Structure formats: structure tokens, C-alpha cells
Amino acid sequence: MPGGAGVRRPDHQTTTRPPAAEGGPEDGPPSAGGGPPEAEPGSPQPGPRGATPPRPADGVTADAVLAPYLQGQAGDFLRSLRLHREHSAPSDANGQGAEAAARALRRSARRISGSLHTFRTVLDPVWADHLRTELAWLSGTLAREHAYAGRLTRLLEALHQLSGATGLPAARGAKPAARTDTSPDAQGRAALGVGAARAGALLERQLTLARTRAHSAALQALGSSRFHAVADAVALLASEVPLAPGPTGRGAEALLEPAERAEQRLIGAVAALPPDASAEPYNEAQDAAWHQTRLLLRLHRYAHEVVLGAADPVLTGAGHALDLHRDAVEAAAAAAAAARTPRIAPATAYALGVLHADQRHEVEAARAVFRETWPYAAAMTAP
Q: Three-state SS for 294?
């Protein structure tokens, strides 16, 4: 399969460089649809379909576009941090305010970190690399508690649905239920019904413990000197953006070129994904390539926000599919880890095996949705 070089949008234009026609600029990419469904509150919203998207004007320097974006995200970070501290008080019993503030904090941290990575050549590289690393640490630390909670909810809902499903294989070594219907399907449903409750209780114990530890780690991180140094650096960013030293002539091209490189890395990564012919439900070895594609799509999305002022709407469905893919992969891994618990009952192990298989099939379903919604068909077709 060829790489991403030469693979273009259907209109042969990049998403970050609006096309120009004779006599004046053409309309840019369609702007309807907003950001991905999982986008946090406060994400930039595209304008109406057919409207010309924002772009660096002629003669505008790159730092005149990038600096306000970074400063705006830094301001959002600091406001979210203040709200998190306010809602973390004992009086906020349900913790919903703190959870929402933590999501907003992660949102700003990801956008700052991603922009520092993509537009590193415009910025002081030593400063950008250090702050990007620290923000990635913070975002990852704060995300774990939410990830464990979502994983538990997903697995328990799947178990509930599977326990009433038909067509399941009989559990190996499980005793059939005392009923007139002794078909393999009936035996499988009976075994799953017995094991599902125990499997759910086991998953709840393990993931709740992991969530509790992640919550403690997040609180410890937010009280550490390392975090205070990050917060100080973001506070300075809100007032001043360290730029690359020396006269660099940072025109609009200084932003367009790295944004287009981010787009081409994404298209190349999609082109390198294994074709449909090699797809199998239990191909965990391929998960890393899909996770990398999700990361590159996120970087492209943030670069698009910097240059054009809004996320690329044509990638909304593809981005959502990659998020579902990530969730299913991690849920399948959690079910497999629970099945390796020593001395669990055969019915419990069977239920966890069925759950693992279900989530791996969800992985394949998410990959299929991504291929259907990916807008650049040439990047998905082998020669």
C-alpha cells in the first residue's frame, strides 16, 4: 500500500490552505456540523455551510494568529483550574462540578500541547518541548479516573445486554441448567446468566479500585510542585508567548506549512492501516496503528483550529469512530485482565470471555465505521 504522499482531498486542496480562484478567494471547506460529538464545551464552532472560514490575512504574521490562540487556551486552563479548586471543596458532595472542570482543564492542556508540537518551529523550541511534555503528563494523569469510570459503565452495560442475547456458544465445562431446552444455545445463555453477575461484580471491584487510585494520583498531582510549575508556565503563556529567537519572517506560511505537514502525516497513517482483507476480531497487534492515527487526527484538528479558527467538519464522523475504537480496545483489555484473575469460577471466566469477544467485535465495528466516514477515499484503497 502506498504511503500518504500525493493523497489529496477530493478537491485536491489541503484543509488548512483555502483555495484561491481567479478574481478572489473561493469559499473554504464546508463549515457546518461543528466539532466531534465528544468535543468539550467551549470548542470553536464552525460557521454556516458555504461561509469562508477564518484564515491568516495577507501580511499577518504567524505569531499574530498563533499567540492569541495559545493565550486563549491558557486563559481557559486557568479558569478551569480555579473552578476545579472551588468545586473540590467538601461542600460539593456530588463532585460533578469538579469533574466538569477537570474535563475543561484537560481540553485546554491538550490543545496547548498539540499546538506546541505542530508549530514548534514558530516558538522557542526548548520552552515548547518542556511545556508540551508537562501538559501531556497532566492531561494523562487527570484522564485516568474518567477513563476507568467510563470503562466500567461500558462493560456493565455490555454484560447486561449479552446476558439476554441468543446464539451464544455453550460454556466449556459448564453444567447445563435444569430445563427442558438442552440445546447448546440454551446452555450457553444459562451459563452466561450465572457468570454475568459474578463477572460484573469482579469488574466493578477491579475498576473501582483502579479509579480510586487514579483519583488519589490526580489529587496528588494537583498538589505537587510539578503541577504548580506547570500552572505558573501556563499563567506566563496567557500574557506572553515565547517565540523562536532571531528574525524568522514569520508570515502566514510559517503556520500553513506545519499545519499541512500534520494533515499529510494523518493521511499517510490512514493509508498505512491494514486493509479490510486482513481484519480479524482478535488482531490486538494492529491496535497501536489505529491509536496513532487517532493521535494524528487530533493534532490535525487542533492545527485546523489555529489556522482556520474551527475544527475540520469533514472529519467529525471519523474522529468519533476512532474514539469508540479506543474505548472498545481498552474495555476488551480490561475484560481479558479480569479473566486472568486466579481462582475465579468457570462460569465467571466464561462470561468474561464472551465480554472480551463482544468488545473485540466492537473494535472491528468501529474500524468499519471509520473507513465508511473517512472522506479521502484514495487513502483507504490499496492498488
A: helix
